[in-house]
């Protein structure tokens, strides 16, 4: 369905997506249960937008992205990309479709083959997808390098000869070379110095405008997501607890977990004070989830209803959804 606020059409739609990992233990390695890494997640990514995905480490952000790409098997649900059901595709069909979506990983060193030259690394997707002409591959490789700000002389060098920021540019060029519609960014700046982070973020913005790209941007740094994203999804223990446009989320966060995350964002003005939300209690285990709202063990507003019932993600305003019984009590975020 078209986004009535922006006029954009959906590119990726996930419906009731689940990813569970079995846990074995004991002398005979018997099945002890499942880790609910992604638990009944539904979301829509519209063409040309950047959707931010935030939450604490272990909340399921990266697993959700890997499930969407069918790198990690789904335990249930559906994923539609450009109208095609990814989870039902056969191997050959999936391989052909993967030209349309690529991924940029967090670590720009371990994600690059140290035995391959930069030109070979960037051109490898072309080779995998049937571009056999060496001259054509080199032409497109040099264009991708130019797009991300890499000099032509880097073509025959190796990854260890570059800085972290340059290695991440190599990763971006590799993701870009097939001209995909969607790029999934798995914390692509978290391993970089702050000054380099800004350069990479500006590069991603420029490439989005130049090629009409769509991004899913995973990060635990809210200020980074705020700079790049049109909308933000907040995840907690495998579920999405709040979705809103970026400006709306920072101004009127509705879920107590989102409010706590926003209260921890540093303010550059030393004269400005903010009330910090300090969460008490223990984080529930994704293997042994509590009854009711899975955030109630840390929530300062939890009631008996929260301990009995699990709230569903519901509309509380135009384009703003929250999974909390008391989302009407929205608090100011960051202006």
Order the strands across the largest sheet as they lie in space.
6-7-8-3-9-10-13-12
Number of helices: 10
Distance between the termini: 31 Å
Specify the helix fraction band. 25-40%
Q: Would you tell me the overall average pLDDT?
A: 91
Structural class: alpha/beta
Count all strands and give the number. Answer: 14
Task: Give the overall silhouette.
Answer: globular
Would you identify the regions where 5 or more consecutive residues have pLDDT less than 50? none
SSE run = EEEHEEHEHHHEHEHEEHEHHEEE
The largest sheet, given as strand count, sense and whether it forms a barrel, is: 8 strands, mixed
Task: Determine the strand fraction and express it as a percent band.
Answer: 25-35%
User: What is the C-alpha radius of gyration, as a whole number of Å?
Assistant: 21 Å
Care to describe what's here?
The protein has 335 residues and is of the alpha/beta class. Helices cover 29% and strands 25% of the residues. The chain is built from 10 helices and 14 strands. It has helices at residues 61-68, 91-97, 118-128, 134-147, 164-176, 194-211, 222-228, 246-251, 256-263, 304-308, and strands at residues 10-25, 30-46, 50-54, 76-81, 84-85, 101-104, 182-186, 214-218, 231-236, 239-245, 252-253, 314-317, 320-322, 331-332. The chain has an 8-stranded mixed β-sheet, with helices on both faces. It has a 4-stranded antiparallel β-sheet with strand order 2-1-4-5. It has a two-stranded antiparallel sheet with strand order 11-14. A hairpin with a 2-residue loop joins strand 12 (314-317) and strand 13. Helix 3 (118-128) packs across helix 4 (134-147), helix 3 (118-128) packs parallel to helix 5 (164-176) and helix 4 (134-147) packs across helix 5. It is globular.
């Amino acid at each position: 369905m078209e986004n009535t606020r922006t006029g954009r059409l959906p590119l990726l739609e996930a419906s009731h997506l689940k990813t569970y990992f079995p846990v074995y233990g004991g002398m005979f390695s018997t099945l002890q249960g499942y880790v609910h890494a992604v638990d009944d997640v539904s979301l829509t990514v519209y063409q040309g937008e950047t959707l931010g995905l935030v939450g604490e480490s272990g909340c399921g952000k990266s697993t959700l992205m890997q499930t969407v790409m069918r790198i990690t098997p789904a335990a249930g649900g559906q994923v539609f990309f450009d109208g095609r059901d990814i989870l039902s595709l056969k191997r050959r069909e999936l391989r052909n479709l993967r030209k349309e979506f690529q991924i940029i990983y967090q670590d720009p060193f371990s994600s690059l083959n140290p035995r391959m030259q930069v030109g070979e690394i960037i051109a490898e997707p072309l080779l995998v997808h049937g571009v056999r002409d060496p001259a054509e591959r080199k032409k497109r490789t040099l264009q991708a390098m130019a797009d991300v700000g890499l000099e032509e002389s880097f073509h025959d060098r190796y990854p260890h000869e570059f800085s972290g920021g340059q290695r991440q540019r190599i990763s971006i060029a590799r993701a870009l070379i097939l001209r995909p519609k969607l790029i999934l960014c798995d914390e692509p700046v978290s391993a970089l110095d702050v000054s380099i982070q800004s350069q990479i973020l500006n590069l991603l913005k420029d490439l989005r405008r130049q090629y009409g790209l769509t991004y899913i941007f995973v990060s635990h740094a809210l200020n980074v997501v705020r700079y790049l994203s049109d909308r933000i999804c907040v995840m907690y223990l495998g579920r999405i607890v709040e979705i809103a446009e970026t400006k709306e989320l920072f101004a009127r966060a509705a879920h107590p977990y989102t409010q706590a995350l926003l209260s921890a964002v540093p303010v550059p003005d030393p004269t400005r004070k903010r009330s910090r939300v300090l969460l008490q209690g223990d984080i529930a285990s994704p293997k042994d989830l509590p009854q009711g709202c899975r955030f109630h063990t840390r929530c300062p507003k939890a009631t008996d209803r929260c301990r009995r019932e699990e709230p569903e993600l519901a509309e509380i305003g135009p384009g703003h959804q929250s999974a909390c019984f008391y989302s009407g009590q929205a608090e100011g975020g960051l202006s």
